[in-house]
Amino acid sequence: MKNIKSRVVVTGMGVVAPNAVGVSAFAKALQEQTSGIRFDQQLADLNFGCQVSGTPQISDELLSENFTPLQLRGLKASGLVYGVIAGKEAFSDAGLEVAPKDEAHSEMGIIFGTGQSGGEKFREAIHLIDDGRVRRLGSTSVIQTMTSGISAWLAGELGCGNMVTSNSSACCTGTEAFLMGYERIAAGKATQMLVGSTSDSGPYIWGGFDAMRILPTKYNDHPENASRPLSNDAAGFVPGSGAGAFILESLESAQHRGATIYAEVLGGALNSGGHRGDGSMTAPNGKAVQDCIRLALKDAQINSEEIDAINGHLTATSKDAFEIKNWSEALHRNGLDFPPINTFKSYIGHCLAAAGSVELVGAILQIKHQQIYGNANITNLHQDITDIINSKCVSTKTQEMRIDVLAKASFGFGDVNACVILKKHDS
Amino acid sequence: MQENEIQQELFKIVKVYLPQDVKENAVKLDSHLMQDLGINSAHLVDIALDVEDAYDITLNEKDMEEMQTVSDAIKIVSQKTS
What we know:
With 427 residues, chain A is α/β, with parallel strands linked by helices. Chain A has helices at 23-31, 41-45, 60-66, 69-72, 78-93, 119-130, 141-145, 149-158, 173-186, 203-211, 251-257, 286-300, 320-331, 345-348, 355-369, 383-386, and strands spanning 8-17, 20-21, 37-39, 52-54, 108-114, 164-165, 192-199, 242-250, 263-272, 309-311, 341-342, 371-372, 399-400, 405-412, 416-423.
């Protein structure tokens, strides 16, 4: 009976983020605390309250490296573009080879999620359909607008023959994909999994949040200050976009290939508050959040004292203090005993479905470089936060530190939670 | 419109859709778009749209079915533009 879990490691990463494209550029941007939040003319033209966004800057050169001229014709799904670039970067970073022409990699699968795909392409299609010109849609409307377009595209480019799918769980999507890929390898059902998530840019994906009045509106003249997680004057999350991608692999395969190992995935947990207790469509059920963190520790066989650092969800809404409370109660740690915690959202905004994967890239880079990146835009820590933890746990400067075990969590719209536990790998 | 003008324009349209391992000089008058040139069936739809745009014509179901080779396409365009 096969009941011993395979150990799983990260052997490749790729990222398209608002403040940098590519893993090494992203590491530099986070180390140097570079903001990717900019004034967004399109949002201004459309009368959005929030006219700033975290939109990745994609050069024509990068596009032509990743897409053929034919693929670029009529390509309007920005999330698909980000996901393909990040996915291919992770694949090549891991030193893997594209499958030969007549045989797919049967041991390699893909779980690459998104919230929706190609809103702008869908808009174009809707106009044509409503005008009675459905036949003018062309052949790429389906691939650009279906949720699984990103995983299907990558499967074809790379030749992946194991499970190929796209998950969706709002802000948890990337962290969930990461954990589902981990579980598949741990269970012996695949050797390598390309996992990650992506999210479109633009008014059609961000509009609903502007309408809910949960985006900051008073920073249109100074975008870099708009995203203020943990601060007493946090004013809502800045809409962002991008993609993060990973090659997860069995330790055995990684060692056999002599692959570079970024970190080991010790385990994690996924759950939901079911809109019970204080949970709702938009608010987290605190008990479920704490359960998720505890279940992740249990799955990873780690004690709470062993957590050296936390990369939070921390979006810059009024829920940040509640998140700190849940971490503190789940770990039974407070004051100065609470682990150093940070969030990258002050630099990249909330990348929605891509948040978990983009931030996981940063979290894993912290383990690799043994440093914790500084937080930004904190006027004063919210008092409900300093009531629980010491302000020294929230550094505003990037610092060298020993990180053996790191916890990363994402908490999503719909009352869904994901927490993953990562460990430094000593080869 | 002259047939050789149409031919040049059609060659230009078709070349965009060639798989990466098919050379541009493989496009001949009697080339079968799918069998000889390896063009994905989904892209035949896009070729038809490009042809419509290039000549300001509309291709119906029957035209699409008959458009198997480059010379088929030339014939259809010549009829519609004469």
